[in-house]
Amino acid sequence: MLPFLARRLIVAALVALAVSMVAFGLMFVAGDPAVVLAGQAGRAQDVEMIRQAYGLDRPLPVQFLGWIGRALTGNFGTSLYFNLPVATIIGERLPVTLMLGSVAFLLAILVSVPLGIAASLKPGGLLDRAALLLAVLGQAIPSFWLGLILIVVFGVWWGLVPISGTESWQGYILPVIVLSYYAMPALMRLTRAGMIEVLGADYIRTARAKGLARLRILMVHALRNAVLPLVSLAAVQFGMMLSGSIVIESVFAINGLGRLAWESLLRSDLPVVQAIILILSLIYVTLTTAADLVNAWLDPRLRSA
Amino acid sequence: MARLGLASLMGGIALALLGLSAPPARAGKADDTLNVAFALEPEALDTYKIAGREGLILSRHIYDGLLYKDLDTGEIKPALAKAWRFTDPMTMEFDLREGVTFHNGAKFTADDVVYTLNTVLDPNYGTRFRIAIDWIERVEKVSEFQVRIKMAKPFAGAVEMLADALPIYPAAYFKEVGSAGMAAKPVGTGPYRLVEMTPGIRYAFERFEAHYAGSPKGRPAIGKIVVRTIPELNTQFAELLAGKLDWSWRIPPDQAARLASRIQIVNGPIMRIAYVGLTVAAKAKDYPTRNLLVRRAINHAVNREAIVQAFAGGASQVLNAACNPKQFGCAQDVATYAYDPAKAKALLSEAGLPNGVDIEMVFAAMPRPVAEAVASDLAKVGIRVTLNEQQYAAGVQKWRAGELPAFFTNWGSYGTGDVAFIISNFFGGGADDLVQDKEVIDLVTVADTAQDRALRQENYAKALKKIADQAYWLPMYDFNINYGLSTALNFKPHPDEFARWWLSSWK
Amino acid sequence: MTVLDLDSRILQRRKLWRRINRSTGIHLGGGLLALIAAIALLAPLLAPHDPIAQDLTRRLLPPFWQAGSDPAHWLGTDNLGRDYLSRLIFGARVSLGIGLGVTLCAGLIGTMLGLLAGYFGGKTDMLISFIITTRLSLPIVLVALAAVALGGASLQTLAIVLSLLLWDRFAVVVRSATQGLRNREFVQATVSFGASSLHVMLRGILPNLRNTLIVVATLEVANVILLEAALSFLGLGARPPTPSWGLMIAEGREHILFDPWLIALPGSALCLLILAVNLLGDGVRDALDATSS
Predict the structure, then answer these.
(1) Nearest residue of B to residue C258 by CA position?
(2) Which residues of A touch C133 (CB under 8 A)?
(3) Is B152 near chain A, with CB under 8 Å?
């Protein structure tokens, strides 16, 4: 267990370093940050001055090493756009995203896994077809459209929930629904496929022949073996929810990490982008590690690995 | 099946929306709070480092400048300075107003002016736009309520810049907290003070009851302002319809027409213009745009009238000169190019390109359909455009490097009604000038620095004539803005893209 | 699976064929997909108008079921007055090509990486996990912006960028499924017979990943098409005026509150494509399952 975690920690550090480095370079490729900062009214002289004022004229490796050095001491610098500490800005947006992502993820799991199991029991049956249709719609309906419809119906017509913002908990209702709906098809279809496969396997038939209770077979034997890929995918999906569906955050005017990342990229706010990417890589390493641990617990044969 | 279901569901919703019969929105009036939405996040509220319009608007409610321009009359009014004069062509003197207090209670004196301006003059401070301050050499204190500005160079826009674009910060506080501190907790003398802020997300203002008497901004009629960022326009529309918003802007013409029956839509022209810059300078590659006949063909090929009608709407009109007609010095008696595809084709043949020509055009910060319409018109006469969309920074970088034959974008002239703020940038020989016409550069340089209005006007007119004659640009149109307002709000739009909520009131 | 004799193989194939012929899913899904492919191929013959011909005087005409529609434009016109039906028909080309092509490439990359990581474990797994996590943490937008700034837009660039970015789900899912399968009796048995690692992976493990792969692939198709639209809006992707469904959805976004049909139509087309891919996938899997048991 300990060596496993130690290995993972090394991977985490390497990932963070590699991603930071690549991202740093890409930012400069995508558009000189000094030009972006100067804005649309910025002229060539303004760009030069900003370049000097923010030290963007130094060689890239020097800038990057400087950033890494400060980040190691917990100093993520100052946002070029807000002129405030990066930690303050992220501190304001991360909780919103964590809340939204976690609740939506829970909802998605609670709906899609049982639905996937139910659909798998009778492939081609009515329930299965309905689930398929739901999944297809979930994939094809753009989330911004679903979000706006819900806003119009529940916010404008009936006035039941706030239209935008997350000042009250009611503000989370619609975005949670949309975000989880967006994640459901994948989880549901994968559960169904895994279950169908496992239910056809020999040991389940043996168990059935032995007269074990149907529910017990389903839950203990079948599900346990069907969910290995599901757990891994779910971890990735959860990470994607945390990195935020930019579209959903835009539609509901939720100021989460996803939109901050997106906007910061477009306005070349280097320190913010770098900090977010660092956070994201840590989140993903944690999640994938957690998924591996869960899988090892579910399937003891994996533990030797 | 899915298709019909979806379609009818959406059709139903659209119909229901149009027939929506909620009472008119008056939410903000009830609690004397102006609810404002921006699509973009305002920057840190240190005016000197703001490039975006949203942050600048907010900061003008918090801070005051030495002077103030009444855009309705064009008159420069005293603000923090009650009188000013040129003691010589390179020196301005200001008598400051007494009895002005900052939001933190500090008294306004000459020290505030001297410290603020001298601080932001320092290149290390990182003031966003050089043009705003590079004409100032230094600022000196004459007495407790008198200061002197020594100019670094003659600059026709000096008075214009001092009118609210260079705000005065409280020296003691500013010295203590610096730019970051001003961003975290702005303190000014303006008609509103910031009481609560989540940066980029939400800003709450309250009327500053101690705002100085005799302020040209006056005492605001509305007590509170709450500004939120709502990035999705459709969400803004929903909030407008539900009465949760009193003020939003930049509503596209199509949607404004649909909203007009339900909320108050006010339209106003602005200084910003759309244009296609063409690369002519010798340092650039041998682009077809270096050929005068090709440039004229481009000007004849695009049906700008139709494009303006379809996409710009409102008060927008097709431009002939490379500036906004509302600007001082924007001469209108220049060569015009009527929409004439046949002539464009003939010009191409004359240029030795009877089979047409290929050209790359990048568009940035312009609506995609407009760029597509331009490209399609050009294609009809044989100018085959490879249309690429880029972020503004990436596009302008390529432009400055001479790697683009054509760049379609827009320019706001800092909201200023003087051609100096547009032609000197694009035709004055600087980095953005991909024409480098000696004659035009000389004309513009003289006009930019002269104090004599007649001479300036004459020189700009000559320059603009040459620019039009040589078809260095494809000037497109001037923009207008649709504001979506609560029916209970009085709001007057201004062409400089600055919302002045201190002038707004409830009906 | 590996030690079947010839007779039973032929028998199986016949059985499979019979299953396929009887499967409504395959018929429906395959039929739909073939139809969409035919529309894409025959687009110039089917489209009533030139999909890129603009008419600014006839912008945003509504489709036939709404008042004020024009019989010449059965499904209305877009923001530039281009015939919406013709754009839908031509849009099938880009969407189908990008959707299936990228999914295939990304699937190959992801499956390969996942197989290697899951099968060998240890250092290989560590390396590949590193690549997967790095890829997941890297915002797609950033890569896209850099690609646009570097090389400008084209469908090839887009296909390459998307293929290099979207293999993550395949890799993650295949890796854990492979880990689960590696220790199963039948795999261990082949290993003990002395089969090469490649043989075990391709013959022993890969066929058992079929269900998972089909599911992930059917999910990715829609993902790819919508992402293509998002990236087109950043300047990477189908260059204007080339239509694609995703792009049409993205372009209709601004008008969604008042003219929702601008999104409903390409959205429904996308829906049908995904449905077709799903039905076909399910059908093929059922048929294969039934024959192997």
Answers:
(1) B14
(2) 11-12, 15, 281, 284-285, 288
(3) no
Residue B274: what pLDDT?
Answer: 96
Q: Across the interface, do A89 and B125 touch by the CB < 8 Å criterion?
A: no
Q: Which domain holds residue B307?
A: 270-480
CA dihedral for B15, B21, B22, B28, sign (positive or negative) = positive
Q: What is the pLDDT of residues C226-283, one digit of tens each?
A: 788 777 767 777 777 888 888 888 888 888 888 888 888 888 888 888 888 888 887 8
3-state secondary structure at position A62: helix
Residues 113-142 of B with CB under 8 A from A: 123-131, 134
Which chains are within 8 Å of B by 3+ CB pairs?
A, C
User: B189 near B102, Cβ under 8 Å?
Assistant: yes
Which domains can be identified in chain C, with CATH numbers? 16-42+90-290 (1.10.3720.10)
Torsion of CA C22, C24, C30, C32, to 10 degrees: 150
CATH number of the domain that B358 lies in? 3.10.105.10
* Per-residue pLDDT, B20: 45
Residue B288 lies in a domain: yes
On whether any CB of chain B is under 8 Å from the CB of C28, the answer is: no
The verdict on residue B431 lying in a domain is yes
- Structural tokens at position B292: 């005068």
Instruction: Pick the most confident of A262-271, A275-284, B465-474.
Output: B465-474
- The distance of Cα C244 from the centroid of its chain, to the nearest Å, equals 14
- Number of independent structural domains in chain B: 1
CA–CA gap between residue B235 and residue B354 (Å, rounded) = 50
Q: Which two tokens stand for residue A167?
A: 């000042």
| Four-residue CA torsion sign, B384, B389, B392, B395 | negative
Distance CA C275, CA A132 (A): 8
CA distance A128 to A192: 9
* Residue C5 pLDDT: 62
Angle at B104 between CA B99 and CA B105, to 5 degrees: 35
Name which of B44, B129, B410 is nearest A84 (Cβ-Cβ): B44
User: What's the mean pLDDT in C206-223?
Assistant: 85
Higher pLDDT, C205 or B2: C205
Give the tokens for residue B151.
């100019």
pLDDT digits (tens, 9 = 90+) for B66-97: 999 998 888 899 999 999 999 988 999 999 99
- Cβ atoms within 10 Å of A63's Cβ, excluding its own: 17
| Distance to chain C for B9, nearest Cα, Å | 9
- Chain mean position to CA A251: 17
B348, part of any domain: yes
Chain A window 239-298: which residues touch B at a Cβ cutoff of 8 Å? 249-253, 255, 259, 263, 266, 268
Which pairs from C68-72 meet CB under 8 Å and 24+ separation?
Answer: C72/C48
Q: Could you report the predicted ipTM of this complex, rounded to two decimals?
A: 0.82
Structural domains for chain A: 1-73 (no CATH), 87-302 (1.10.3720.10)
In 3D space, the residue among A281, A270, A290 whose CA is nearest the CA of residue A31 turns out to be A270
